[in-house]
Write a structure and sequence with these properties.
The complex is a heterotetramer of chains A (227), B (227), C (588) and D (93). Chain A is an alpha+beta fold and 227 residues long. Chain A has three helices and ten strands. Helix content of chain A is 33%, strand content 27%. In chain A, the strands form two sheets. A five-stranded mixed β-sheet of chain A has the order 3-2-1-5-8, with no helix packed on it. With 227 residues, chain B is an all-alpha fold. Chain B contains seven helices and two strands, in the order H-H-H-H-E-E-H-H-H. A two-stranded antiparallel sheet of chain B has the order 1-2. Chain C is an all-alpha fold. Chain C has a single domain (31-535), classed as Cytochrome c oxidase-like, subunit I domain (Cytochrome C Oxidase, Chain A, Up-down Bundle), CATH 1.20.210.10. Chain C has helices spanning 20-25, 30-60, 84-120, 128-147, 170-173, 177-206, 219-250, 264-281, 284-298, 305-318, 334-346, 348-362, 371-394, 396-402, 406-436, 442-468, 488-518; strands spanning 438-439, 520-521. A two-stranded antiparallel ribbon of chain C has the order 1-2. In chain C, 67% of the residues are buried. The chains are: A alpha+beta (227), B mainly alpha (227), C mainly alpha (588), D mainly alpha (93). Chains in contact: A-C, B-C, B-D, C-D. Bound molecules: heme-A (HEA) (2 copies), dinuclear copper ion (CUA) and copper (II) ion (CU).
Chain lengths: 227, 227, 588, 93
């Protein structure tokens, strides 16, 4: 069991985990201030007979301070987050050289169409496999997401990437894996009673392995390596 | 009783109140209720606007499916009922029982007329094959649409039917509720002469509702029938 | 210009003794209606709790027969083993019952009804009969929702958010009648809330006692008033959306059906446009009542009363502009996402004002830890955790990772249990004497509080870690995933804590019922509070006041140097107090 | 005694005439005209809002009410606008 975020296996992991830690620090400070303050007050000011509380209706200066500090922090956080958000999901964020893969989700499986040896989708050498996502390491990959029936969600925790797959919409999402290995693609949007087992295996290959796999899978054709 | 005393006993909440917005409870309550009605129609009209804006094809041209002259007549009826409503209110505000009865009665008649015309419109449309789900297969409209897909908005007939029937249907429902409650007031309060120069909250409050329903229709007529 | 010499002695001769039915069932008395809401929504809280226990059993011990589960029909849990389709029903109905039928009516139905007239010095709500209907439609809505479990194919199973098109298509979700009942029930509930809100708003605006100016209203009333506005304007949107969904299911419309040009995201926009104001409906009244209780327990005026009011208004106002934070990865325009992120983050500011002002209130107080105060401080401590976890999700890139994971589930429960429910435990204990004329047991109240605090944190805190690991929500069997299997011991720990948490709630249950019949008789003002309701006998009589009281000051004058004792009721006239000027009320 | 200062009733029949004429104008716009579709749309919406305002201000007496009731009446409108505008941007980006 991990006590922390999962393995960082994509270029998104850096900013996202960094943001996580930054927010952890900000909220950690707020948390400690509040909880420690509460405990201190609880101990220090608990009722003693004969004592009267300090009669005051407030203090404008104090209130301005504790309004301004969160306000400034939040705006700064917003600006930083937006910087990464634009890189991850922004309109022009998808790298032009990204390797395209089409993923069609349906209750309850992932149909993954590879561009085949020519590297282009929509050509004759495309082939489709079920529940097996293979991507090369170090290369941006763009997934074209479509859905047959209801909303699903494309989620690979180690790659820190998630995108809902909405019927009637063509949505693209991109990522760039950095660590070869086996991961799991989870459907993370409730899509019916089989939602819990709508998973696919994700294999991040080295480029050489990927090419080899591609060659072999393209020969086997549609569903060749499906399970 | 003096004028002021009558007003006090009849109109005030039965207890002294802090100065609120200076209107009596029922009227304030009606305005507040109308606020929620605005949001209800926002959900319906907003969905229509959004669906139409994002529709995958052109909407049917005005007048192709819907009968504009009949509806224009209906609009006219509703405007008339609104003016007769306000005349009824002005009459009783001057203590004029006779004209209250006349104008109030006219309002009910116009309102009922509106519902009747709408019922006629619906049966007519359904007969020709326009349903909440779109054009009925094999119906007259379906054939026309097949011949003129653009003019009849064939690609989005389903959305057309859904939004048309839901919006006008709920408006019609509101009119019907209004007619029923006005009829109730007419029999129990107007005819027996229970409203007076100083006590006619019922007329004013039901009037507010009625004008609101008219106002919604003004918007609906424009965006559903004419655009 | 008349003075407070009330022009009207309460015309209450009309309140002849009534039979049982008129008095307790079809009552128009706001206090009875509040109490009706209390019983019914506590029942639904219990239902929601039972459902949660089944969820937890399945998650801790997937595939094992649930103790006592054998009594469930084959379609739900054959041999006590929960089926996947039953599991989603459990999650859906747990969320739905807790949000719509437990917490919302507990906060608004019970306390808006009970407190607004009492705290403002009115005889009743502005429209008592509408008020009665508001209760009965809510009751009907709850029954319709509950009926879902007993129809063919079972209850709704698209999550409490009912995302279309799953919810719109029986062939895809597997639930036909259940999903329709969900829609019908929420339309009824919407109607009930609108009727209620209309009453609360009118009453607050128009029916305040002489001298009860806007800025002398207790924060609980302020919060309930603003909540009523949120309810008034948010629920019709849900009703409208639910009606469209119902039409999609029944008469073949295509609002949310992408195949015919409908938009799946439209549902989400409408739902969350309602849904986010809804979560503030679920917290603002709690914040208001906690403010009252903390001032009382600290024996100090609330710190920064005006900014507390503006913070409530600010939260409510901003609450309308953040709904998109539930949809960052839904396929929504990412630029819109940026806007929603900023507005969401800004909400931390008014929330900060509230939290720090509560602390300011306790600072140099004379803290008196009666059970309501304990729960109120527990509220502050726990709500902060939930609120701060909201910041993680508000940051869009991070939300891409933690959206729809147990991190969200942890957030939900920290704000809703740690927030709303703790406040409710406090508020119920606090106003119990005024409702029933008896006091709840102090000792058992304390035991209940400490055990709840412990088991609650053991249950929900680990969910943050589980969510950080990437564990998805609404998953029937997490052991399906290799990367989740190592977390199973954690899940079992959560489950056991949850059972203990539930068991602890039975203390509250017993305390509640026992005190109802055997509790210590309450004095008129057991907490030495300043509010108007404490000038009435316990329980408060029908019609409240013979003669409406006059108000001379705000509600938080504790430890005022002007008097010897440490509280100064709002109605007590000191020699320096002037009679309020009462403007004549306009007639029709 | 309707409001604190009872107002004079406006000439309702005149407003009725206004509404009638505006409706006729709207109908005229529904025909094929030598103006662009967008122009037509704007004109139609303008006329609709005009009519709605007439009803609200005169028939519902908003013109003669105190400012706080007027505020109460328009509170929902910005919310409605926020919802529709935000969702529509979805299709423009
Ligand atoms: C009572 C209910 C309640 C409340 C009050 C809140 C309050 C907040 N919520 Fe929460 N939320 C829910 C109930 C609630 N939420 C529910 C039920 C869901 C899930 C729905 C579903 O999908 O099923 C949800 C989901 C949810 C999401 C969507 C997550 C996702 O699905 O991906 C987000 C994202 O931004 C969010 C954010 C926030 C924020 C920023 C606040 C803020 O209002 C919190 C502000 C408070 C504080 C910040 C703490 C106090 C302040 C200080 C101590 C000052 C110092 C602080 C700083 C400097 C940071 N919430
Ligand atoms: C107010 C809201 C509320 C409350 C109190 C709770 C309470 C609990 N919740 Fe719930 N939960 C939600 C709101 C709430 N939840 C929502 C909105 C969701 C999302 C649903 C969705 O995804 O669609 C959710 C989802 C959710 C999940 C995620 C399921 C999944 O995604 O697969 C889990 C899992 O552990 C869970 C567990 C629990 C547990 C163990 C409790 C325990 O705290 C329960 C303890 C028991 C009680 C609180 C009952 C006590 C009873 C009384 C005190 C009554 C006394 C009666 C009288 C005196 C008459 N909840
Ligand atoms: Cu597909 Cu969940
Ligand atoms: Cu939210």
């Amino acid at each position: 069991m991990h006590w922390w975020l999962p393995l960082k296996a994509s270029t998104f992991a850096g900013p996202i985990d960094g943001l996580f830690i930054a927010i952890l620090i900000i909220t950690g400070i707020a948390f400690v201030v509040v909880e420690a303050g509460l405990i201190w007050f609880i101990v220090r000011y608990r009722r003693r007979p004969g004592r009267k509380a300090f009669y005051t209706h407030g203090n404008a200066r104090a209130e301005v301070i504790w309004t301004a500090i969160p306000a400034v922090t939040m705006v700064a956080l917003g600006v930083i987050s937006n910087h990464y958000w634009v890189q991850i999901k922004g309109r022009n964020s998808i790298p032009p050289n990204a390797y395209p893969i089409a993923i069609h989700a349906k209750q309850f499986e992932w149909q993954i169409t590879y561009p085949g040896p020519d590297g282009r989708l929509g050509t004759a050498d495309d082939f489709t496999v079920r529940n097996q996502l293979h991507v090369p390491v170090g290369q941006p990959v763009v997934v074209h997401l479509s859905s047959e029936d209801v909303i699903h969600s494309f989620y690979v925790p180690q790659l820190r990437v998630r995108q809902d797959v909405v019927p009637g919409m063509d949505i693209k999402a991109w990522f760039q894996a950095t660590v070869p290995g086996d991961y799991e693609l989870a459907c993370s949007q409730l899509c019916g009673m089989g939602h819990y087992k709508m998973r696919a295996r994700v294999t991040v290959h080295t480029q050489a392995d990927f090419d080899a796999w591609m060659k072999q899978a393209a020969q086997a054709g549609t569903g060749g390596t499906g399970s | 009783m003096t004028h002021a005393a009558v007003a006090a006993s009849a109109m005030r909440p039965p207890f002294p109140a802090e100065r609120g917005v200076d209107v009596y409870n029922k009227k304030l309550g009606m305005w507040v209720f109308l606020g929620s009605e605005v949001m209800f129609f926002t959900a319906l009209i907003g969905s229509y606007v959004i669906l139409r804006f994002g529709a995958p094809g052109p909407w049917a041209l005005p007048g192709k499916v819907l009968n504009i002259p009949v509806t224009a007549f209906n609009t006219f009826l509703l405007i008339c009922s609104s003016v007769s409503m306000v005349k009824a209110y002005a009459a009783i505000a001057n203590g004029d029982q006779k004209w209250l009865k006349i104008w109030f009665g006219l309002t009910i008649l116009c309102g009922a007329g509106f519902v009747a015309v709408q019922a006629y419109e619906y049966t007519h449309l359904i007969h020709h094959g326009f349903l909440p789900s779109g054009y009925r297969d094999g119906s007259e409209l379906a054939e026309l649409a097949a011949a003129n897909p653009v003019m009849y908005g064939q690609a989005v007939a389903g959305l057309y039917g859904s939004t048309f029937f839901t919006m006008t249907g709920f408006h019609g429902f509101h009119v019907t509720c209004g007619v029923i409650s006005m009829l109730y007031l007419y029999v129990t309060r107007v005819l027996p002469g229970k409203y007076t120069k100083d006590d006619h909250a019922g007329v004013e409050v039901v009037g507010l509702y009625w004008h609101f329903v008219d106002l919604v229709w003004i918007i609906l007529f424009t965006i559903v029938y004419l655009i | 210009m008349t003075t407070a010499a009330a022009p009207h002695a309460a015309p209450h001769a009309g309140h002849a003794p009534m039979g049982f039915w008129r008095k307790y069932i079809f009552s128009t008395d706001h206090k009875i209606i509040g109490i009706q809401f209390l019983f019914v929504s506590l029942f639904f809280l219990l239902v929601g709790g039972f459902l949660a226990m089944q969820i937890r059993w399945q998650l801790g011990f997937p595939g094992r027969p649930m103790p006592g589960g054998g009594i469930l029909p084959e379609t739900m849990a054959p041999g006590g083993v929960i089926l996947p389709e039953y599991y989603i029903q459990l999650v859906t109905m747990h969320g739905t019952f807790m949000v719509f039928f437990a917490i919302m009516p507990l906060l608004v139905g019970v306390f808006a009804n009970f407190l607004i007239p009492l705290k403002l010095g009115a005889h009743d709500m502005a429209f008592p009969r509408i008020n009665m209907w508001s209760f009965w439609t809510a009751f009907l809505a709850g029954m319709i929702m509950l009926a879902g479990f007993f129809v063919p194919d079972g209850a709704a199973r698209a999550g409490w958010t009912s995302y279309a098109p799953l919810s719109a298509r029986p062939d895809l979700s597997g639930a036909s009648y259940g999903q329709m009942l969900w829609c019908i029930s929420l339309v009824c509930l919407g109607l009930s809330s609108i009727l209620g809100s209309l009453n609360y708003i009118t009453t607050v605006i128009n029916n305040r006692a002489p001298g009860m100016t806007w800025f002398r209203m207790p924060l609980s009333v302020w919060a309930l008033f603003i909540t009523a506005i949120l309810g008034l304007l948010a629920l019709p949107v849900l009703s409208g959306a639910a009606i469209m969904l119902l039409f999609d299911q029944t008469i073949g419309t295509h609002f949310f059906d992408p195949a015919a040009g409908g938009q799946a995201l439209l549902w989400q926009h409408l739902f969350w446009f309602f849904g986010h104001p809804e979560v503030y409906i679920l917290i603002l009244p709690a914040m208001g009542m906690v403010s009252d209780i903390i001032a009382n327990g600290s024996r100090k005026p609330i710190f920064g009363y005006h900014s507390m009011v503006f913070a409530i208004v600010g939260i409510a106002f901003l609450g309308w502009m953040v709904w998109g934070h539930h949809m960052f990865v839904s396929g929504m325009n990412p630029t819109l996402g940026s806007t929603f992120m900023v507005s969401t983050l800004i909400i931390a500011v008014p929330s900060a004002i509230k939290v720090f002002n509560w602390m300011g209130t306790m600072w140099r107080g004379n803290l008196h830890f009666h059970v309501p105060m304990l729960n109120a401080v527990g509220f502050v401590a726990m709500f902060v955790i939930g609120g701060l976890s909201g910041i993680y999700m508000a940051a869009t890139p991070l939300d891409m990772f933690i959206h729809d994971t147990y991190f969200i589930v942890a957030h939900i429960h920290y704000v809703l249990f740690g927030g709303s429910l703790f406040a409710l435990f406090g508020a119920i204990t606090y106003w119990y004497p005024k409702m029933f004329g008896r006091v709840m047991s102090e000792r058992w109240g304390k035991i209940h509080f400490w055990l709840t605090l412990l088991f609650y944190n053991c249950t929900f805190f680990p969910m943050h870690i589980y969510g950080m690991g990437g564990a998805m929500r609404r998953i029937y069997d997490p052991t399906q995933y290799d990367f989740l299997r190592p977390y199973q011991p954690l899940n079992q720990f959560i489950t056991i804590s949850a059972f203990l948490l539930f068991a602890t709630q039975l203390i509250f249950f017993v305390n509640f019922w026992w005190s109802l019949f055997k509790g210590k008789k309450a004095e008129q003002n057991p907490w030495h509070d300043n509010g108007l309701e404490w000038t009435l006998p316990s329980p408060a009589p029908h019609g409240n006041w013979e003669r409406v009281p006059t108000v001379y000051r705000g509600p938080y004058e504790f430890s005022s140097p002007e008097v010897a004792e440490d509280y100064l009721p709002q109605t007590r006239k000191l020699p320096t107090d002037r009679e309020p000027v009462l403007a004549p009320v306009a007639g029709a | 005694m309707h409001t604190a200062q009872p107002h004079k009733h406006p000439n309702y029949l005149l407003i009725w005439l206004y509404l009638f004429l505006l409706t006729v104008a709207e109908l005229g716009l529904a025909f094929e005209l030598p103006i662009s579709r967008n122009m037509k749309l704007i004109l139609l919406l303008f006329l609709a809002v005009w009519k709605a305002l007439l009803v609200a201000l005169f028939f519902m007496h908003l013109k003669f009410e105190r400012w706080n009731l007027r505020i109460l009446a328009i509170v929902p409108l910005p919310l409605a606008a926020i919802l529709i505008l935000a969702v529509i941007t979805e299709h423009i980006w």
